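INTERNAL AUDIT FORM
Audit reference: QA-55
Scope: verify that the stored structure record matches its stored sequence.
Auditor: D.O.
Record contents follow.
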Amino acid sequence: MLDKYSYKQKFTALVVLAVLMIALAYKRSFGTAIASGSAYFSDKAKLENSALIQSQRQALLQRNADLDAQIGHQQMDAVLVQNALVDFMATQPGSTELTTVAPMHTYSDDYFTRHSNNIIINGSFNELIRTIYAYESEFSLSQIRHISMYRKKNFKTRKHELFTALLFQHYQQH
């Protein structure tokens, strides 16, 4: 039956048959294997990405909880905090004087209530710096948010006096 065909025709038919078999093998097994392999690697990358996102989410939640605890860790009454500010000033050694205690300001939003206390002290520069440092390092009920130093002339003594306005804020969680 194949005797009537030449070697060239037989070779061409064999090459065409081989190409058809390779195409059929690719279509039936290699193509699906490659597609499932690429789907596997894609899903694996998505899974790793979701695990990374989950760990980042956990880290953000932990950081948020730490900040909430740090900002709103005191559930003391705001009047007690203001009294503690004045009492702390009275215990400080040196020649600084508490000049003014401004009325407390309260602001509330969805998460926190902020109580702001403003005090003005006067004294020498070094004593004022020591007092500010003591408030920063030892007073934990409220944090200093703003410091303003200025001088005024005392017309009775004809000398300039140095004043420092300290703004403290105390947060309470709802």
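Auditor finding: record pair retrieved intact. Residues 88 and 138 are 9 Å apart (CA to CA).
Action required: none
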